[in-house]
Design brief:
Elements (H helix, E strand, L loop, with lengths): L4 H16 L8 H13 L8 H4 L9 H20 L7 H39 L12 H10 L2 H6 L10 H13 L3 H14 L4 H14 L5 H27 L5 H11 L13 H10 L4 H12 L2 H18 L13 H18 L5 H28 L4 H15 L6 E4 L1 H5 L10 H4 L2 E3 L4 H7 L5 E4 L17 E13 L2 H7 L6 H12 L1 H12 E12 L2 H5 L1
Parallel strand pairs: 1-2, 1-3
Antiparallel strand pairs: 3-5, 4-5
Length: about 550
């Protein structure tokens, strides 16, 4: 694999997003808990696995979790030589998520190399055929692809997240798209079909698109398209049934079970229904701000070789098929986003390297490209700043653990309610039980919870006052509030309004205040401090013992 400085920058940006937002949410919980259990108990003893206590409504595949755990082992072994003991395993969680980010990052780089190799091959052929008049230069097409990626919030922020769409699914679909660019159509159909049945069934729409347009463009026969698709589904089914039936202790094919539950039975619609056009009118627009890449797609498609057209049309087919599913989420079409960037990069490279600068309009057109990437990157950083404040459960657990360590509290039980568990609480965040003896209870059943209530020494909950806690005599206070955790809840425009609409000011005087009087750094600090609203959402309580009441 060819490597460039920008490849390193890509992995650095992915890592930066990971460090800024180290916690996970409920959508990521299955994979992160599964990886924890595999690393902690091994695959040979599943009796203590979290999914047996909290199985969820449908089974999910363990294949991705097993792969990530295996890839994490060498790094964890090396870190254990450096650090022999630690209060929690949150650093292990960072390593695990780092491996997820590495698989995604390397797949982007591989796809970039495939794109560049395809154009380089075409250019060489044209030179050999002496078609000088028709030769366009695309030496920077891979660079533009990486630049568009680096400026993308969704791909950079979520590349390290243990969502099922990003744990091996996106990396392998990127490889499949790369194979199409290299002319390996049968292998691409095989791999994408395997990914669909093992990891995410919606990838079957992308696989079908690759097969369909490979046949239409006469790259392979219909028989081969069907044959390799069936081979991929067959091998993928065998892998998933073998692995997942073992972990779930019953025969299952999770992606098929999930399809029957969410799509056929219609339970996914309970999470919201949107119009058919939502992916095109809302989600793609949200993922591309400013919409330069989207605007370049028409131009890029006209310039694209047949292989790139197959990739782009297959991705469009994927989005159209999923548009008929009432419940929509941006991550369902994330596999098509790299293809959109491939076309955008093609258009950008053509303009940047082949447009003759004769008019001021040409200069302005070229200037838009780097300015668009810079704007996208700054928007991405703004989203990151806000998004890192949306994991109060992880922050609450960290503060609780710090208190336990600082005060040397041992052999206590803390109950964590559902909302904190959904916003950052994972098994990796728990203190070493052998050292501190802290039991983390996450009981959801109301009857069982009431029986266990007297045994709790601490609570991490969403109830703002002790009087609102369940199973308590409201006239007696048994709990003391020891900590609160804040979360981003909105914007307050007052500061920016007062700053912009000052008396006797104009644009130049405002710029002078920002650049010279305050300096941009100070202005940004004041802007965020006065405009971003954070409110208390989680509360940590300590049980007041009888002797403490007497004192």
């Amino acid at each position: 694999m060819r490597w460039s400085v920008l490849d390193t920058v890509l992995l650095t940006v992915i890592s930066f997003h990971l460090i800024q937002a180290p916690f996970t949410k409920v959508e990521e919980s299955f994979n992160i808990q599964a990886i924890h259990d595999i690393l902690t108990y091994s695959v040979f003893d599943i009796s203590q696995y979290d999914h047996l206590k909290f199985p969820g409504v449908v089974p999910r595949t363990f294949v991705g979790a097993v792969i990530i755990a295996m890839l994490s082992r060498p790094y964890l072994y090396l870190s254990s030589l450096i650090q022999t003991s630690r209060p929690t395993s949150i650093d292990v969680q960072l390593v695990v998520r780092g491996i997820v980010g590495l698989t995604n990052g390397l797949s982007f780089i591989y796809l970039k190399n495939c794109l560049q190799d395809m154009f380089d091959e075409i250019t060489e052929k044209k030179k050999e055929e002496n078609e000088d008049k028709d030769i366009y230069i695309y030496d920077s097409v891979g660079t533009w692809f990486l630049l568009f990626l680096i400026g993308s919030f969704h791909l950079m922020f979520y590349s390290t997240r243990t969502l099922p769409n990003f744990v091996m699914t996106l990396p392998l679909t990127n490889v499949a798209l790369g194979w199409v660019l290299l002319g390996r159509y049968n292998a691409a159909i095989f791999l994408s079909a395997l990914v669909a049945i093992v990891f995410r069934l919606e990838v079957s729409a992308l696989s079908a698109g690759i097969a369909l347009f490979s046949v239409i463009f006469k790259k392979i026969s219909l028989f081969d398209a069907i044959k390799f698709g069936i081979f991929g589904l067959g091998l993928g089914s065998a892998i998933s049934i073998t692995v997942d039936s073992y972990f779930w202790q019953e025969w299952c094919l999770p992606e098929v079970d999930g399809f029957l539950f969410n799509v056929v039975a219609g339970y996914a619609s309970k999470w919201g229904v949107e119009p058919v056009t939502a992916y095109f009118t809302h989600y793609l627009r949200m993922m591309f701000m400013p919409p330069t890449v989207l605007l370049l797609n028409y131009f890029g498609y006209k310039l694209a070789p047949a292989k790139l057209k197959i990739v782009s049309l297959a991705s469009l087919f994927h989005i159209i098929v999923l548009s008929f599913q009432p419940h929509k989420e941006w991550r369902f079409i994330i596999y098509a986003v790299p293809s959109i960037m491939l076309l955008g990069a093609t258009g950008a490279a053509h303009l940047w390297e082949n447009m003759k600068v004769k008019k001021i309009t040409n200069v302005l057109c070229l200037a838009i490209l780097p300015l668009s990437i810079m704007t996208s990157f700054f928007i991405s950083m703004a989203f990151l700043y806000i998004s890192r404040m949306n994991y109060p459960g992880g922050e609450a657990l960290t503060s609780f653990n710090d208190m336990i360590v600082e005060k040397n509290i041992t052999n206590a039980t803390v109950h964590v309610s559902i909302p904190p568990c959904m916003t950052g609480v994972t098994l990796f965040g728990e203190l070493n039980h052998d050292v501190y003896g802290i039991n983390y209870d996450k009981t959801e059943n109301t009857t069982l919870l009431q029986e266990m209530w007297p045994s709790f020494d601490f609570l991490i909950t969403h109830e703002p006052t002790a009087s609102q806690l369940p199973f308590e005599n409201k006239t007696t206070n048994h709990w003391e509030l020891v900590n609160t955790t804040k979360m981003f809840t909105g914007f307050d425009p007052t500061y920016i309004k007062n700053f912009v609409f000052q008396e006797r000011v104009n644009v130049l005087s405002l710029l002078k205040q920002i650049i010279f009087d305050k300096t941009p750094t100070v202005f940004l600090k004041e802007l965020t401090a006065n405009s971003i609203v954070k409110s208390d959402v989680f509360f940590t309580y300590k049980r007041i013992k009888q002797d403490e009441k007497t004192d």
